[in-house]
Write a structure and sequence with these properties.
The protein is mostly beta strands. It has strands spanning 2-8, 15-21, 42-51, 57-59, 63-67, 77-80, 87-94, 98-106, 111-119, 122-129, 136-143, 150-156. The strands form three sheets. Strands 1, 2, 3, 4 and 5 form a five-stranded antiparallel sheet that branches. A four-stranded antiparallel sheet has the order 9-8-11-12, with no helix packed on it. A three-stranded antiparallel sheet has the order 6-7-10, with no helix packed on it.
C-alpha cells in the first residue's frame, strides 16, 4: 500500500517523516524516492515501514547517514542596535558547534575587522567594537566552512 519513512537520532526512537505511495504487488522493479527536507546534523538512522493493504507491516534494514553540513541563513543572524555608535551586538543561531570567522567589511568589501569565534549549538552573542571605524555603512559577515558568507548591513554613526 505505502511506505512510512522513519528517522531516528539515536537508532532506537523513530518518528515518521514522510509517506511514499506503493505500487501494490508487482512483478517489475519499481523505483521510489524521498528527500528529508529537514535533515538532522550528525548521524541519522533511517528505515522504511512497509504497510500492506491489510494493515500488516514490516521494517527494512536500518541505514545511517552522517550530515556534517552546517547552514546559516540571514534569518539566523541579527545585528543591533542599527544604527550603532561604539559597538554592535551580533547574535547567530547555530545548528552545531564550530569555529567561524566574523568580519566587518566596508562598502568596498575591504576587511576592517576580523575575529575567530567559537560558536556553540544554539544562540551565540558577540559584541564587536566600532570606536575605530569612521561613520558609514558596513557589513557583518560570517564565514561558515566553504559556504557563501552570511552578511548583515549596519550603519555606524
Amino acid at each position: 500500500n505505502y511506505f512510512d519513512v522513519e528517522r531516528s537520532a539515536d537508532g532506537k526512537n523513530y518518528e515518521s517523516i514522510g509517506k511514499v505511495s506503493g505500487h501494490g504487488t508487482s512483478q517489475v522493479m519499481n523505483k521510489y524516492n524521498f528527500e528529508d527536507k529537514s535533515p538532522l546534523i550528525g548521524t541519522s538512522y533511517y528505515r522504511l515501514k512497509q504497510i500492506d493493504f491489510d494493515g500488516q507491516f514490516t521494517y527494512s534494514s536500518i541505514q545511517s547517514i552522517t550530515n556534517n553540513t552546517v547552514t546559516v541563513s540571514s534569518d539566523d543572524v541579527s545585528v543591533f542596535p542599527n544604527p550603532a555608535t561604539a559597538e554592535i551586538n551580533v547574535t547567530v543561531q547555530m545548528q552545531k558547534q564550530l569555529s567561524s570567522e566574523i568580519l566587518i567589511l566596508d562598502l568596498s568589501g575591504r576587511r576592517v575587522y576580523s575575529q575567530t569565534v567559537d560558536l556553540s549549538q544554539g544562540q551565540n552573542q558577540f559584541k564587536l567594537p566600532l570606536v575605530n571605524l569612521p561613520s558609514g555603512v558596513y557589513f557583518v559577515s560570517f564565514v561558515i566552512g566553504d559556504k557563501n558568507p552570511v552578511m548583515k548591513k549596519f550603519i555606524k554613526n
